[in-house]
Design brief:
Layout (H helix, E strand, L loop, with lengths): L6 H9 L5 H19 L2 E4 L3 H13 L10 E5 L26 H9 L2 E6 L19 E2 L2 E5 L5 H8 L5 E6 L5 H7 L2 E4 L19 E6 L2 H11 L23 E4 L10 H16 L3 E4 L8 H16 L17 H12 L2 H14 L4 H25 L2 E5 L14 H5 L6 H6 L3 E11 L2 E11 L4 H10 L2
Parallel strand pairs: 2-3, 2-6, 9-10, 9-11
Antiparallel strand pairs: 1-3, 4-5, 6-8, 7-8, 7-12, 11-13, 12-13
Pfam family, one: Amidase
Protein name: Glutamyl-tRNA(Gln) amidotransferase subunit A
Catalytic activity: L-glutamyl-tRNA(Gln) + L-glutamine + ATP + H2O = L-glutaminyl-tRNA(Gln) + L-glutamate + ADP + phosphate + H(+)
Amino acid sequence: MLNELSITEAADKLRKKEISAVELTGACLEEIEKNNPELNAYLEVFSDAKEQAQAADVRRASGENHALLGIPLAVKDNILIEGRRASAASKMLENYIATYDATVIKKLRDAGAVFLGRTNCDEFAMGGSNENSAFGPARNPHDASRVAGGSSGGSAAAVATHMALGALGSDTGGSVRDPASFCGVVGLKPTYGAVSRSGLIAMGSSLDQIGVLAKTAEDSELIFNTISGHDPLDSTSREISNSQFSISKFRIGVPRHLFAQGMDADVLERFEATLKDLKQKGCEIADIELPSAGLALAVYYIIMPAEASANLARFDGVRYGLSLRGENLQDDYAKTRGAGFGLEVRRRIMLGTYVLSSGYYDAYYEKAVAARAKLRMEFEKALESVDLIATPTMPTPAWKIGGKSDPLSAYLSDIFTVTANLTGNPAISIPMGVVAREGKSLPVGIQFTAAHGDESALFIVGKEVK
C-alpha cells in the first residue's frame, strides 16, 4: 500500500513520477475511512485533501521538487490552519475558526505538503493519555482498549496506522515522545526555540515546543529541517546550528539512578538490549548522575500549571470561544469556564493559580524556578562529558483506558520526559521493540536527549536503533 511508505520512500517515487500525490493521499484517506471510526485519531478530515494533492502534482509537474511536495500529513488540533477549526480538543473552542496559519503550517504549505485533517489530543494538550479530549480518547492501534498516549495521541495513532505519512504534535512535558513510545513511531521534541510557536495554542509558554511524529528518524529530520528556524513572530525562536557526529564516536550517558522504581522489568530489559546493540556499533556507554532529576516531576507540575493558568485566563466568555450568559460578569466567567473546560484543565488551572497566589508564590513557584535552573546546569555539565543521555521514554507500555483514574499515577509516568522541556534540550523517542501484555505486543521506546541545538546527533543515533 502506498500509505505504508515512509516519507523519504514516497518522495523518491513522487520525484520519479512512479506515483502521484493524488494516489498517495487517496491511499491515506481510504485508511482513515477504515480505521478512524475505531481509533478516533482524527477529529476532522479535510474535504479538500485531494484538491491539495492535485495542486501538489501540478507544482511538481512545473519543476518544483521539495521532498515534502505532495506528502500527506496530519496536524494536531492545537496548531492553527487558516480557515479551519482549531478546538484544542475542548468544548471551549469547539467552533473556533483559525484566522491565520501557524508559522509551521505556512512553511509546510510553501513546501507543498498536503494537510489531511486535525488530530485528537488531550484538551489544551493537558494529559499523557489522550483520555482528556472533550471528544473521546484516541485509541492505541496495537490494542484499542489501551491509550494512544498524549497529548499528541491522535497524531501518533495516525502515523502508526498509516493514516498519514507524518504528523505535527506539540510537546510540553513529553506529549510527542509519550505517544510515540506507546504507538511505536518516532517522536521528536526539538530544542526550545528551534521551531516557532506562533500559531500554537499555548499551554506552558516556557515549555511548549511543536514537534514531529514520523515512521523513521529520516522522516522526522526532513520535517524538522522544513519547519525549523528563526521566526520574527516568535521572540523565543532562533536558528539552530547542529554539530556533526558519526555513530562510532558517540558517548552515551545513562542515569540508572532514576530507574530505581516504577519501571516495568521487561521495558528495562528492552532498554539494556538496545544499549548493548549500540555498543556493538561503536558507542561508549557510561553511567552518569543527574542529582536534581528526581525533583523534575515536582518542578514540572508547579511551573506547567502556573503557566497554563495564566495562558488560559483569556478564555473568559467575553472575547472568543464559548460564551454563556449569567446574571453578572462574574457569573459569565463561572458558567463559561465551568462548562467549557474539562476536569483535568480545571484541575491544572486551580493548581497553577494556587502556586502563583500571594503567600504561596515564594514557597512553591519561586523554588521550582530555582530547581529548574539547577537541573539545566546539571544537564549542561553532563553533556560536556557525554554526547547523549539515554533513558526509556516511558517506564511502561500503554495502559488500559481508564486504568489510571488517579491523576497522580498518570503524572508519574512523565518521569523521563519532563526534563527535556524543563531544560530546553532536544529529545527523541525511537521504537526499541515490544513487550507482551494480555496477549498483545505493545511498543516501547528509548529516549535520547542531546545538547541544545544538537538535533543532528538525535537523528544519527535514531537511524541506528533497530
